[in-house]
């Protein structure tokens, strides 16, 4: 009975940590988006199709604010910044793992896209008007800013805080790491779902995107833990999003 009660208490602690991190990340993202919308309105002429500039500004602001918060947490909890992934540890190892994963993903995405287009009514159309400026701007956004910003938010901020808290009441380091990776991945997935709170309504949900977020989030989290650095996940995230963009463009040229 005592063991069952202890497990319930531990579950509630984990859920509370998850909820606090999810709310924090949601607020950071929402505030940055609101700020970037105001900035975008001043420079919208540079991107009249709203293809890449708003997203770029949002992710730059998100990276800056997340870094400031991480530094504050590092000072408050006396956790070295290197434990948040701010180091160059095992980068060569990360590169090797990313190369293997990216090769497999190219095969999976290309084959899966062709099958879905052939077997279903899924369109190969792009989500933006295809011009050189739009494609270049969107591609540069994907390979430079998505992983850089989102890995700070979803891995550097989430995993170390989870591990710091979990290690205070869980004896198994492996269990703590699995929970931390799972929590960061779930938050990553939820962040790619749009919803209204009052009244509650899901306004955007894409099953294929959620599956991709689950696979990528798990890999990025594992790589963060394994390499003890955020550089590998950043590189992987940017590169994989670039691959997705290129494959989508090729599918559009062939089937669009």
From TrEMBL:
<feature type="transmembrane region" description="Helical">
    <location>
        <begin position="12"/>
        <end position="36"/>
    </location>
</feature>
<protein>
    <submittedName>
        <fullName>CPBP family intramembrane metalloprotease</fullName>
    </submittedName>
</protein>
<feature type="transmembrane region" description="Helical">
    <location>
        <begin position="56"/>
        <end position="77"/>
    </location>
</feature>
<keyword id="KW-0378">Hydrolase</keyword>
<feature type="transmembrane region" description="Helical">
    <location>
        <begin position="207"/>
        <end position="225"/>
    </location>
</feature>
<dbReference type="InterPro" id="IPR003675">
    <property type="entry name" value="Rce1/LyrA-like_dom"/>
</dbReference>
<dbReference type="GO" id="GO:0080120">
    <property type="term" value="P:CAAX-box protein maturation"/>
</dbReference>
<dbReference type="Pfam" id="PF02517">
    <property type="entry name" value="Rce1-like"/>
</dbReference>
<keyword id="KW-0482">Metalloprotease</keyword>
<feature type="transmembrane region" description="Helical">
    <location>
        <begin position="98"/>
        <end position="117"/>
    </location>
</feature>
<feature type="transmembrane region" description="Helical">
    <location>
        <begin position="237"/>
        <end position="255"/>
    </location>
</feature>
<keyword id="KW-0645">Protease</keyword>
<feature type="transmembrane region" description="Helical">
    <location>
        <begin position="177"/>
        <end position="195"/>
    </location>
</feature>
<keyword id="KW-0472">Membrane</keyword>
<keyword id="KW-1133">Transmembrane helix</keyword>
<feature type="domain" description="CAAX prenyl protease 2/Lysostaphin resistance protein A-like">
    <location>
        <begin position="135"/>
        <end position="242"/>
    </location>
</feature>
<keyword id="KW-0812">Transmembrane</keyword>
<dbReference type="GO" id="GO:0006508">
    <property type="term" value="P:proteolysis"/>
</dbReference>
<dbReference type="GO" id="GO:0004175">
    <property type="term" value="F:endopeptidase activity"/>
</dbReference>
<dbReference type="GO" id="GO:0008237">
    <property type="term" value="F:metallopeptidase activity"/>
</dbReference>
């Amino acid at each position: 009975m005592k063991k069952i009660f202890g497990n319930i208490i531990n579950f509630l602690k984990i859920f509370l940590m998850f909820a606090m991190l999810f709310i924090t990340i949601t607020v950071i993202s929402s505030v940055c988006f609101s700020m970037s919308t105001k900035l975008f309105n001043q420079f919208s002429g540079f991107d009249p199709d709203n293809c890449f500039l708003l997203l770029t500004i949002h992710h730059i602001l998100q990276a800056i604010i997340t870094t400031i918060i991480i530094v504050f947490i590092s000072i408050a909890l006396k956790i070295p910044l290197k434990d948040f992934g701010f180091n160059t540890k095992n980068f060569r190892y990360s590169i090797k793992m990313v190369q293997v994963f990216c090769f497999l993903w190219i095969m999976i995405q290309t084959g899966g896209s062709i099958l879905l287009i052939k077997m279903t009514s899924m369109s190969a159309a792009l989500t933006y008007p295809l011009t050189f400026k739009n494609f270049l701007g969107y591609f540069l956004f994907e390979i430079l800013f998505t992983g850089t910003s989102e890995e700070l938010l979803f891995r550097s901020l989430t995993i170390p805080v989870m591990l710091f808290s979990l290690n205070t009441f869980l004896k198994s380091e492996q269990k703590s790491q699995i929970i931390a990776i799972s929590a960061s991945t779930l938050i990553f997935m939820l962040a790619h779902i749009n919803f209204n709170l009052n009244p509650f309504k899901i306004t955007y949900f894409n099953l294929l995107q959620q599956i991709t977020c689950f696979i990528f989030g798990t890999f990025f989290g594992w790589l963060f833990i394994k390499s003890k650095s955020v550089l590998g996940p950043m590189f992987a995230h940017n590169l994989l999003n670039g691959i997705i963009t290129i494959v989508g463009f090729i599918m559009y040229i062939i089937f669009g």
